[in-house]
Structure formats: C-alpha cells, structure tokens
Amino acid sequence: MTDQGKIDREGARPASLFERADAAFGLGPANAANTLPPVPPVPASLRRTPAPVPEPVAPVPQVVAAPAAATASTPAPEAPRAVAFSGPCVSIDRDHLRDGGLLVPEDPVTGLLEEFRILKRELLADARASHSALARRILVCSPHAGEGKTYCATNLAIALAGERDLEVLLVDADVVRPSVTERFGIDAEQGLMDALADPAIRPESLVIATDIDGLFVLPAGTASSRDSEYLASARTGAVLDRLTQCAPNRILIFDTPPALAASPAAELAQHVGQALLVVRADETSRAALEDAQHLLSACADIKLLLNATRYNTSGRRFGTYGTRGK
Q: Model's pTM, two decimal places?
C-alpha cells in the first residue's frame, strides 16, 4: 500500500521556506501572543499639522552697479610751511657797526669773532640736539644794566648769521630801553609789543630784513604801561610759535631788560630753551648772579657768559692768525 503522504500531488505547490520554518519552530499565529504589543495610536489633540511646504521663490536677479565715472583725485593736504618774513628790507651801515665795536661780516677774522664763534657753536649744538623749536629760542640777559647784554646779543646774532642756510632773528625785547635798532642804524616804529597788543597784526610783517645775509631784526615796538601783562599773556606764546614753527633753520635771539631791573626777562624765560646770562668781570656780584639765575629758572638751560675779562688763567688769547692770499 502506498503512503499517500509521501507522494506529492501532481500540480501541488511546494512549501515555502517560511512555511517550513513555521512548521518546524512554531512561529505561526498560535505564537502571536509572544510578539510585541502594538503601538497605540497618537491622540488627535497631540498631532501636529505638517508645515506647509513653501513654494519655490524665483531668485531675485543681482543688480551689479556700474563702475562710477572716474573723478579727479582729491589733492593731499600740503605740509605746513614756515612763516616767511614779509617786512621791509634795509641796508646796514658797516661803518656804523665798526664805530659801535660790533662785528662786520665782510671784515677780516678777528679775535672777537673767534670768541663768538666758540659761543655760537655751543648754542647751536644744544639747539640741534634737542630737535625742538624751543631750543632755537635763546634769551640774552644780564643781572644789571651796563654789563654788555645788548652788545653780546647783537654780535651773537651777526656771528650766527654767518652760518650757511641759517636764518637769525634778533628780537629787541628790551621794551624799557630798546637799543637794537639804534645799534644797526634802523628806524622803525612798530615791533614786538604791537604784535602782542593787537592780534590782527601778523608778527612776520614787522620783521625787518637786512642786507647782512641771514640776519633779520624785530624791533621792540610801541611801549605802554601794560607791556609786562602783554608778555605774560597767551598771545606771546602764539606769536613766538608762529615765528619758529616748521623752521628748523631759524634761530631767535632775544635781547631783554636786566633781570633784576624789569620783569620781561622772567616772562620770556618761559618761552625759550636756552638763556645766556651775561655778567661783567670784576663788577657783577655773586648775589646778583644768583638772584638773576633764580628769576630765569623757568628756562632749564642757563649758560654764563663772562664779559670784559682782562685775565685768563689758561693763557689762551684769540687774535688774527693770517689771511689767505695776503
């Protein structure tokens, strides 16, 4: 008898792999309880409405600015320049200088010139070392009258003017007894005090040019009872700054009244970088020298010039050495 279970029916579909696995391991519906419980549905109140999908936006065409038309370039600001002296020009009588015992640029070299050459070298060295306009302002003063301050200031200015590419302005700041213009034989009415009293006056317009190359003179000007107040005002600093700014080759020499006789020297000491205190040998006392030095203490660099000496412990004496070609 034939076992019908072992005979495949003709045309019957063979069992699949999953069916055979179910028959072997029991993974059918009978074991559905062993599977994970179904996930409960999300309540409607907690459901989020899907955000609408934004419609595509057409790209905005980029506008490219056309290059601007070429414009004229803005000129760079000019560097500040030194104020040029614009006063009158006068000729100096050389015989008048000789009669006053002053240096004459065209004359042969003398011992007096050599002495002032040594003096100017020290003053110029300090002025150039500091690189400041203040050090190019030099005050010449003395404790008392009659000690030779104007004589020394005038000769120093003439000696300095002999330097190449150097402008020297000799300022007569002795408003009590002005004498610089007299020593040069110059007639002038307005000067320093007029520029200080009237802000509308440009100080450079009052500066007198001379026929001595590089030498200029600013007279004292019109005196008044308020000269000391004018010198103590802020206008003094503005005037001096105007005369020296952007002018590294310009030296200002101030001839002031005696320090122990009037106040202008002490006032101007605040506006200079060097002071030359002239004392007369065998006449100026030590006390007077110390008092004058104290009054000029606003200037940090005070030098001493001994005038009218007759004896020199070193034995050095300047004189003529010889003139080439003679």
A: 0.73
